[in-house]
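Figure caption, in words: inputs first, then the predicted bound structure.
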Amino acid sequence: MASSRAANKFRTAFNYKGYEVARWFPGHMAKGLGKMRRQLKGVDCVIEVHDARIPISGRTPRFQETLSIRPHLLMLNKIDLADLSRKREIEEKLRQQNVEHLTFASCTTFKDKDVKQIMPKVMDILASSPEFYKGEDDDITLMVIGIPNVGKSSLINAFRRMYLKKGRATPVGKDPGITRSVLTKIRVSDRPSVFLLDTPGVLSPNIPDVETGFKLALVGAIKDHLVGEDFLADYLLFRLNRQENFRYVEHYKMQEPCDHVLKMLGHIAVQMGKSRKIKMDSGTGSMIIHQPNFQAAALQFLRDFRQGALGPAMLD
Ligand SMILES: Nc1nc2c(ncn2[C@@H]2O[C@H](COP(=O)(O)OP(=O)(O)OP(=O)(O)O)[C@@H](O)[C@H]2O)c(=O)[nH]1
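Bound structure (guanosine-5'-triphosphate present):
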């Protein structure tokens, strides 16, 4: 375990090296956003799924515009990976952002106990919004929105498992941008008759600052290669050290915490047995040296973080 003396040696600010985030918003997202907005008038309630590890950051302002038009439930998903020790503070901040209805959930936990609470909440929200409530015999249409990779498809599949006893209707994947088809209408319940509109993950065209961009990338909403795996790994190391979360020391069997990403990635690469052979001229002939595969180590570090192996996370 690291002493607080060791913790004092760590960087207090991250050098983003003049990174630009503007190019992280691909064209297909703008198209998706436009289609979603056009479909809104047939929607009774919007379920916005967001990642509980970044409860405040990264929700797009354009989503929030839609919220004033339609009843809205914000579902903070992946709580199995999140450190929610400051839950009250998070709830308060979201209330200040006009989030009236909030729920915490995990879509992958066995028995879907969190997902079970969502439909009753939606029914309550609709019942308290008479202008949108139609009556028991009418179809209810819900739109599921959110940034990439937060679990929108997983939620829809969980609903289908639960209410229709059916398997996957929509593909799930660990990489962002799996859902490309816009607005597929999927029946998720017979009684009441409920349809869900699946939507592609859409990022804000204006990510407000580079730090938000890095947080989004750490939770997998932006593809790693757009940021650079080693750069992102460095940011992760910076964040873990700042929060004095030193589980990585034990996890990678290190001697002590470390603030130098290449040193750390080198250690992980050796642990994983990942090295590259490089031919070098030694002056008296050529020789083969083994260089740690830093990229493979960076990917492993990011994967371990995302799967919760380095402890529950809170990036806001
Ligand atoms: N640990 C954990 N993983 C989850 C949870 N919900 C979804 N996932 C995983 O997160 C990844 C993304 O899930 P999807 O349901 O495809 O996310 P999406 O929002 O539809 O993604 P896009 O299609 O990119 O917009 C998958 O690997 C899921 O298994 C959760 O509650 N906990």
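The longest helix spans residues 229-242.
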